[in-house]
């Protein structure tokens, strides 16, 4: 497997990155290509159709997918969902930024549920795009695979399952608090914790 094109502990270098840019409109695809040329990506894989995204994903090891929600003859959401369930390693786990002209809650949830790492609203500016690339390069969410969903864990905070619900993941903590295993502190011990005394030495 090739070395990652960018790492969280150093400056991002996209010069050698394999990047897929997918947009169903020629103007949008050209704009994306110009933005990424400014980041140092000189030969991005340009795709207008979902089939083109699939073909590149099968042939190349990709570092980043940037996919518009509207592709020629298909949906960007479906392309991301296909990628996540494709079983192609490492591409099925590659960062995906989804671009959409609609940021209604339903569209954001749809992007989240198809497996995208992040959603960007059109028009995508170079500054926002670079910020999101840095963000996904440092992302530490676990990758989840199940029959209904594949992608980064949709929980941004590890708060555990909702109150009253049993956790579905092996690392979810139990909501039941067991009995104390040591005696309770008496009030003088508790007071001492909040009123530390100066050490004399």
Name the descriptors.
alpha/beta; two-stranded antiparallel ribbon; five-stranded parallel beta sheet; 201 residues; 15% strand; disordered N terminus
Write up what this structure looks like.
The protein has 201 residues and is of the alpha/beta class. Helix content is 32%, strand content 15%. The strands form three sheets. The chain has a five-stranded parallel β-sheet with strand order 2-1-3-6-7, with helices on both faces. The model is unreliable at 1-10 (pLDDT under 50).
Provide a concise account of the structure shown.
The protein is of the alpha/beta class and 201 residues long. The chain has helices spanning 26-38, 50-59, 76-85, 105-114, 126-138, 187-194, and strands at 19-22, 45-47, 64-68, 70-71, 74-75, 96-100, 118-121, 143-145, 150-152.
Please tell me how large the radius of gyration is.
Answer: 23 Å
Series of H and E elements: EHEHEEEHEHEHEEH
Largest sheet: 5 strands, parallel
Identify the strand order in the major beta sheet. 2-1-3-6-7
The count of strands amounts to: 9
Contiguous uncertain segments of 5+ residues: 1-10
